Amino acid sequence: MTQTEAGTATGKRVSAARERLLRTAGQLFYAEGIHTVGVDRLVAEAKVTNATFYRHFRSKEDLAVAYIGSVDQAIRTQIGSLMAADTPTDGVLRGIGASLVEQIRSPGYRGCAFLNAAAEFPAPDHPVHRAVVEHRAWFLQTITGLFAEIAPAEAENAGRHFVMLRDGAMSAGYLGDPLVAGETLLRGIDGLLRVITSPGLDGAAPTAAGPAAAAAPDLVPSAVTTVSGIECAPPGA
User: Fold this and answer.
1) What is the pTM of this model?
2) What is the rounded (10 degree) CA torsion for 218, 222, 225, 227?
3) Percent of the chain having pLDDT more than 70?
4) Which residue, 1, 51, 119, 132, is most buried by CB atoms nearer than 10 A?
5) Angle, nearest 10°, between helix axes 155-175 and 89-104?
6) Which domains does the chain have, with CATH numbers?
C-alpha cells in the first residue's frame, strides 16, 4: 500500500469513528437526555477509545453541539430538496407538516430534539442553546419565505403562527395523544393557508393555495404529501 493509500484508509477510519460517535450520541441524547449520558458510555457504545473521542470532540458539550448541528443539517437538506422539486408552495408547507405528524406518531418519539436541548441548556450564551436558536431562526425564516410566495403581506404573521403550531404539536404529541396532536397540526396548517388566501388579504384569491385549501378536507397523513426526513429527532432515534 502506498503512503497516499494508507492516508486515505486512515482518513476513512477516522471519519467512520466520528460518524459512529455522532450517531450513538444522537440516539442516546435524544432518548435519555444530554446531561444523563456520560462520555464513558458514549465511548463504550460507539466502540471507540477515549483518545479517539477527544481527537474529534473537545468535550461532551462539543459533541452535543455537533449532534444539534447534524439534526439541523438533515432538516435543511430535506426542506431544500422539497423546495427544489416541482411542488406548489402550499404543498411544501403541507408536506413539512405531514412529516412532522409522521414523526410525532413514530415509536420512541420523545418530543423535539431542539426544544429538549434548549431546556437542558437554558443559558442563552451556551453553545448548545445558541445552536438551537440559530436553527429556529433559520426555520422561521424559511417558513416565512414560503408564505411570502403565497401572501406577502401576511407572511411574517403566518410564519410565526406555523412555528407555534409546530412547537405545540410536538410537545402535545409527546405529552398527550399523538393522533390528536397530529390532526390538530394539519388542520391548523390548512386553516392558516385558507385564512391568508381569503379575499381581502393581500388581494389573493381563495384558491391561491390550491384546491385542497379551498375544499378544506379532513386532513390525515395519507391525504397530504409526506416529506420523509423532516424531523426534529436524530435518524434512528
Assistant:
1) 0.79
2) 130
3) 78
4) 132
5) 20
6) 59-223 (1.10.357.10)
